[in-house]
Design brief:
By secondary structure, the chain is of the alpha/beta class. It has a single domain, classed as Vaccinia Virus protein VP39 (Rossmann fold). The chain is built from seven helices and seven strands. The chain has a seven-stranded mixed β-sheet, sandwiched between helices. Helix 6 crosses helix 7. The model has no long low-confidence stretch (mean pLDDT about 90).
Length: about 180
């Protein structure tokens, strides 16, 4: 999962409260995440979205946060513990070429891929693996930064998602991103 991976230390800037002015995690995620859901978050970094995902999934839900950078996951675990959400967050170290989620086959209700698919070596492999974790009817919210990912590249990502059995269910408006809500058939 690594071509040009965000350096671990940049995670501190990505957690900035100022970023919440552009991307309010609770507002972005509330339409999709409900109590009791199993949520997959590949590339969570230090957890900008993770804690809100865990709050929305509630005490009976869980968030599986998968990253290839141990330092990012270390900070994420500390933040979850400090927020009293450690029991809801399953932070896992992935390998560069796989998330290693065979135990989640057909169990995920919602997945969030926010500003990370463009960092994977293969969008097709990413979407195939993510789709394999999802229940029929489950959704994946894909959002890529418009400044890094041009419209053609995003269209290619949507093509890779379609090959994995994910269809575009909606095109939500998320500031400064290309975004699509994908659904597994």
């Amino acid at each position: 999962m690594a071509q040009r991976v965000c350096p671990w230390w940049l995670g501190y800037f990505l957690m900035s409260p100022v970023r919440r002015l552009a991307f309010n995690p609770a507002k972005i995620l509330a339409p999709y995440v409900r109590e009791g859901m199993t949520v997959l978050e590949p590339g969570p970094g230090m957890g900008f979205f993770t804690l809100d995902l865990a709050r929305l999934a509630g005490p009976s839900g869980r968030v599986v946060a998968v990253d290839i950078q141990p330092k990012m996951l270390g900070v994420l675990k500390r933040r979850a513990a400090k927020a009293g959400l450690a029991g809801r967050v399953d932070a896992r170290l992935a390998q560069p070429d796989t998330m290693g989620l065979t135990d989640l086959a057909g169990k995920v209700d919602f997945a969030l891929a926010f500003a990370m698919v463009h960092e994977t070596p293969s969008a097709a492999a990413f979407f195939a693996e993510a789709a394999g974790t999802m229940k029929p009817g489950a959704h994946l919210l894909l959002a890529e930064p418009a400044g890094h990912v041009k419209a053609r590249k995003f269209a290619d990502e949507l093509g890779a998602a379609a090959q994995a059995g994910l269809t575009v269910a909606d095109r939500p408006s998320i500031r400064r991103t290309h975004a699509a809500l994908l659904q597994k058939a």
